[in-house]
Amino acid sequence: MLVVPLLEKYKKYLIWSYRTLGFFQTAGKFSFLFLLMILFNLYELAYYVPEVEKLSKFQTYLDTYWFNLGLMAAGALVLTLLFGLIHRLLDRSNKFNLITLLETGFPELKTRLATAYDNSQNINIVTKKLLEEVNIQLSGIKIRKIVPKKQIFRSFVIFLLAAGAVTFCIHEGFSFDVSPSQLIDELLDNMSDLNARAAYEEKEEVVPDSRYRVEAVIIKNGDKVEMKINPSLGLGFTSQVDADTEKNFNESKSGLEDEFRQSQTYSENLPEEYEPLIKQYFEALSS
Question: Domain of life here (predicted)?
């Protein structure tokens, strides 16, 4: 059988190459995430889970520093696997395809290789000639040409740098002066203060402006009488308004939203004992 044995040979070789690339890419992601967790003390986030804090107190195999490193390593591993899973679900088109790789890397095989492979079980005069020609072409290609050597080298360098930085931070105990738990607590406190302030402002009663539409109740002959005094020009209770005052009143009347009226003459004949009460009331209004 032509073509198929060569394809199987190339497939094994390329699969190992791409697995090596995938390993260095995954290791680089893990090392980079682990480095970020060490630098920003992200182990503190794990202590929001009550079981982690209990485990930290009860376990006696590791001191606190190495226990926290273990938490960060576990977190980096989980994130790496999660990102890898999301990448596979979203990028299914990047799946390994030997025929596509060979046709892309060697344009002379384009369409002919796929046709020969599809008809490898259907032998006749036409397909036999095609298989023989494609088999000769496959035998003469240099498969190393399509090995992702540059990608493998780049991924290896990234992994090496990230792993070296992680080793340095662990050995020297280096990290930034950042406390994620403190930042989160401050954020929650600020949110609580804002909510409390908003609730207070909603419940706070608005005090009406006492300068306008003052309402009061007096007792006249045993009956309660409601008195309403609208804003005026401060002339007191008098109906004697000269021409200039009336002119000024009419000019200022149009510029105000409230309806102004002249004060009416107060001409009630009340007993003398009511006079101090009424006088005290109007003095309070004018103060």
Answer: Archaea
Looking at the fold, whether 154 and 263 belong to one and the same domain comes out as no
Six token digits for residue 129: 């000639």
Q: Is residue 121 part of a domain?
A: yes
Local confidence band at 254 (pLDDT 50, 70, 90 cut-offs): low
Tokens 């979203």: give the residue: 90
Tell me the C-alpha distance between 241 and 235, whole Å.
9
Contact criterion met (CB below 8 Å) for 165 and 35: yes
Give the model's confidence band at 184: pLDDT under 50 very low, under 70 low, under 90 confident, else very high. confident
Residues 6+ apart with CB under 8 A from 70: 62
- CA neighbor of 76 nearest in space, from 36, 39, 30: 30
Residue 70 is part of which domain span?
A: 4-178
Burial class (CB within 10 angstroms; exposed 0-12, middle 13-18, buried 19+) of 134: buried
Does one domain contain both 123 and 251? no
CA-CA-CA-CA dihedral for 13, 19, 20, 21, to nearest 10: 110
Ranking 70-74, 132-136, 212-216, 221-225 by mean pLDDT, the lowest is: 212-216
Alpha helices in the chain (DSSP H): 4-39, 50-58, 64-90, 98-105, 112-118, 125-140, 149-172, 180-203, 243-253, 275-286
Let me know whether 39 and 174 are in one domain: yes
